[in-house]
Specification:
It is built from 5 helices and 4 strands; from the N terminus they run αβαβββααα. The protein is of the alpha/beta class and about 120 residues long.
């Protein structure tokens, strides 16, 4: 079905990234409508798995849901909730954190509630 290909396309994402070219941690698909049965869902998921890169510790990271009641004014719909590594901002955030932590900026605000060892540990990981 074309809807399975479209749900992973760049144009249908809420962020400006192409998640298909990054690593997926987990993915949940919820199909609504009576145009599809569970065997069709499984067939499309196995077809999509070949194109997606899943993390090595969760190769079977798909959950599937099927609701026979279609969405209002639509014959069928597909919702994809996926967790992947396509947001590249984390590397920039880590660099900013490291620069600030070296100078101990704002640390005094957090040491009232946390041990300073937590910051040291987060720098290492």
């Amino acid at each position: 079905m074309q809807i399975f290909t479209e749900v992973f396309s760049r144009e249908n994402q809420l962020i400006k990234a192409s998640p298909s070219s990054y690593t997926y941690l987990a993915c949940a698909l919820l199909m609504r409508g009576n145009l599809c049965n569970i065997s069709d869902l499984n067939q499309n998921v196995s077809r999509i798995k070949q194109r997606l890169h899943m993390v090595h510790w969760n190769t079977e990271g798909f959950k599937i849901g099927l609701c026979n009641q279609p969405a209002r004014d639509m014959p069928c719909s597909l919702l994809c909730l996926a967790n992947n590594t396509c947001i590249g901002r984390f590397a920039t955030m880590r660099e900013s954190f490291s620069k600030l932590y070296k100078r101990k900026f704002y640390v005094h605000h957090y040491t009232q509630y946390m041990d300073i060892g937590v910051f040291d540990e987060s720098c290492c990981t």
